Amino acid sequence: MYKKLFTAGLFLLSINAYAQPTLSQHQQDIQKALSGGHAATPQAKGNSTLSRMVAFALYSYYAPAGRQVKSDSAGYIYRTYRGGDAGRGGDLKTQTQQDTLNYYRYNADTLYFKMRNSYTYDSQNHLEDAKNKYWYPSTGTFVFANRVSNYYDAAWNLTADSTFILQNSNWLATYATTFTNNAAGLHLTEGNYAYSIAAGVWSPVPITNIITTYNAANDIETQTTQSGNSGSLVNISRDVNSYNSSGQLVKYTRQNWDNGWQTQSEISNTLNADGTVASQVALQVINNMMDTFGTYTYSYDAAKNRTQSILQVLDPVTRTFANRQKTAYSYNSYNQLTAYEKYVWNAGNWNANEENSGSGYYYYEDYFPTSVAKIQQQGGSLKVYPVPAGSSLHVDIHWNTEQSYTLTVANMMGRVVLQRAGNSEQMSVDVTQLAVGAYNIILKGDKGGVQHSKFTIAR
Questions:
Q1: Rounded to an integer, what distance in angstroms lies between the CA atom of residue 398 and that of residue 379?
Q2: pTM above 0.90, yes or no
Q3: Separation of alpha carbons 128 and 427, rounded Å
C-alpha cells in the first residue's frame, strides 16, 4: 500500500542552484569529483540549539562599473522548529526546510526579478507541496507560475514527481519524473516525461533517463544519462567514480557515447591523511588527445572546512602551470559557510575586481528543533526517545499483527549507517559512533508492516 504525498523535488533543485556561484561545466565536474569524498560533519553548538540559513547575497564583477555588483539574493522564513540538518541548518551543502523563500535577481545592482515560493509539510516534516510565484511589476502582484509535487511509498522513498502550471484556474501537469530505488532508498533510475498540451499526450518514453549504480557502501559508481527524444532511449553521457579501499573518491571520469564510451575528461584526487582532498589533476580532450587542463590545491581548517582553493591552468606552449583563480571561504562556529570570495590572477596579483571574480555572503539564525519525532501508521506504532544517562536511543515497537522486523537507520542523504534485526517490542540502539545530524529510522516487518520515525543527534 502506497501513500500519496506532495513535495517539490525538481523545483527545489532549481532554487538551490540560485544559492551558488555560476559554474562552468568543468567546474561542475570538479564539484562532482569532490562530492564523493567523506567530508567532515559540522558540529552543532549544543544539545538543543541549531542554526539555519535565513538569507544570502551573491555578487559578480561588472566591467562597466569596474567592481562587483549584487546579482542574486534571497530570504528564508521558517516555522519555529524547522530548519535543516543538525549543524548545517541549510547551508549550501544541504536542503533547507523553509516555509517561504523570497528570491531576487539583479542587473548591476538594479532589481529586475522577484520570485516567491511557499512550502507546506506534513507532521513528520516531509515536504507536501511547493508553489512558485513570479512578481509582475505591471500589476504589482505575485502570480502563480508552477507547482511541483512528489509521490512517496510507505517507506518514504520518492517514487515519482509532477510539475504543474496554472491554466484557466486549474493545475495542469506538464512534466513528470518516475524513480526506482534500492533498499536504502537511493535512486536506481530516473525517467523524465513531458506532456504536450497541444497533442494532449505524454511522451511515450522518457525524454531523459538516468541510470545510477552503487557499490556496497551505497556510493555512486556510475551515472548514465540517456535521451529519448528520437522515440527510443540512446546513451548520451556517463559519469564514473572510482574509490580507494577506504571508500574515498580518488577519480572521476566523464564519458560521452559515440559507438562506445569515449572519455572526455578525468579528475584524479590526492588525499590528505584525514581523508580531505589535498589536490586534483584535471585532464580533458584537447585536439583529440587527452591532456592536462590544470590542477586544484586545497587548504582546510581544524574542522576540515575548506578554507581555500587555487586553480592553476597548464600553458600548452610552455607546459608550465599558471595561477588562474583562487577562492577563499569563511565559516561560523557551526561550520556553516558564511562567505566566499573568488579572486582572479592578473599582473602578478590576486584581484577581486576582474572578470570571473565574485563573492557570496550567507546569514543564519539559531533555532530550537523538535529532537524526537513519533509516527503511527499502517498497523502499529514506533516511538523513539533518548536514554539520558548514555549515548543510546530506546525504541518502543508495537505491531497490530505481531511480526519480526529489520530496523534501519539512514542519514538524510539516504545512506544506511546502522541496521538491526529483532522481534521484541523494545530495542536499545547505540548511537555513539553516529555523527551529529538528523537521521531517519525505517522499521520493516516480515509481514508487511512499515513504520517510520526521525531523530536528531546534537551533542
A1: 9
A2: no
A3: 31
